[in-house]
Amino acid sequence: LGFFLIPNLVMAIAKTDRFLWLNANVFLVATCLLFYILGMMTDRGRRQTFLLEKTLEQQATQDGLTGVANRRFFLELGSREFQRAQRYHKHLSLLLIDIDHFKRINDNYGHPIGDKAIIALTELICRVVRHTDIVGRIGGEEFAVLLTETDRTGAECVAERIRTAVTEMRLTMGGITIVFTVSIGGATLTADYKDMQHLIKTADDALYQAKGAGRNRVVIAKNGYD
Questions:
Q1: What is the pTM of this model?
Q2: Contacts of 61 (CB under 8 A, 6+ apart)
């Protein structure tokens, strides 16, 4: 009388050379000294297929180091949000965030420290933005944040919060403590924009201006042609 699990149970499929790997949840019922086995079995093969599909889906949409959206998936989500914002006349802003002198970090301290900086920046960005916003890693040390229903003033405020928080952050690993800064370029949807790529190009130009002006600063474009 009782319940137990039989893992890795092998069952042959009648009149074939195939076998099923099963996990069996088994109940034992004692009646007149006879035991009946009432089992509910799940095909492990199906479960493994499901887990494999989920893993492949994550690999196709998530950045392997940080867990946020990868470039392809971010652009896909961004295009949907762009179309939605245009259709319903909603505010939409894009921030591009780049770690300043990231190559020096890797060269001077090694790639493990560089990876830690990327992960720490990801966590910081995700703490600052809302759960409705979209965060993606679109390059080695470059991130993109799509701020839904956010105008230019709101985007500049979020960007400054991120920039300031990064300057205050300290990373320690193996007795080494490093600090770094970020440059941020942004753009806000107006009637000037044709598509998501246009928004990205404008934000990228603003990022270039931020770096050219000395880095560790925020530049938000004023319209689709800045």
A1: 0.77
A2: 69, 70, 72, 73
